[in-house]
Write the structure tokens for this entry.
Amino acid sequence: MEMSFRWYGSDDPVTLDKIRQIPGVTGIVSAIYEIPAGEVWPYEKIVQLKETIEQVGLHLNVIESVPVHEDIKLGLPSREKWIANYKETLRNLSRAGIHTVCYNFMPVFDWTRSNLKAPLPDGSNSLKYDAEKIKHIDPLSGQLTLPGWDLSFQKEDLKQVIDSYQEVTEKKLMENLIYFLKEIIPVAEEEEVLMAIHPDDPPWPIFGLPRVVTGKENIAFMLGAVDSPNNGITFCTGSYGADPENNLFDIIDAAKGRIHFVHARNVKWTGEGSFQETSHLTRAGSIDMPGVMKKLHDTGFTGPIRPDHGRMIWGEEGRPGYGLYDRALGAAYLNGILDLLHEE
Ligand code: DNO
């Protein structure tokens, strides 16, 4: 597996110079953040990003994410234009030598939490999801805005998009996903790009919006519906693992050979539909981290892996979930597990 690290570009306080000092990290996971969802990523900009990373001796191994335009998720006639753009972006990425693309199919909102700085007993803080609190949040009120969300929507537009989903059942959303995949996977095959869909985080519907990348059955369905090795998943331990009903080992089996990227982090279940992120250490949370890593190893996964969110520790202030210190500790922990696995 290739130990990798997410970098948010030149505005990221966690610089490439710092990242390259984390033992064993060679891959950088990044994106071009200023391009609005749906627009084509110009080849020159991709090359520029790639070269910036290579200048410090690291390499860009995964794009996370190429966002999917809302019209595609809604299945509107205008999706054709956005799908054509998406294909163009995949071609440009491939031409620049990038062959793994992470994306998600979550309506309107990306990852969601109720608290971005929830205290942990050791004095650090982390991201938390409390079902009761989320129930009482109106996403239109502006009370809650999260770093992963597309904030380009004006309030009226946001309301309109949310309203448009009233017609979209889970079944319909899945159909729209399959439609999208049938269009883009042949291009991904031609261009040798591995598509890795990220699970919904958390893996259940929120704010009355449907979600479909939630667990084993749905993944098996979407992988079967477009049965190509290029149609794969991002196996995110923390997203799938937030639901105690999800058996991570079964999911790995169901997606065997089709896991193209791994996000590794731990969560602790704190009550019905609620959880808090912890350090990566297995005993800190509810996920059997070495077990999962062993299972990935045994099923032949050799692709990119990154420590996912970390806590804020040692007084660090930063992008929620994406500080330097705890993610670096996570990488070291995961590398320890991998070293042992490779010795077996
Ligand atoms: C959160 C991330 C997600 C992820 C996207 C992938 O920290 O795991 O925002 O990047 O959902 O498209």
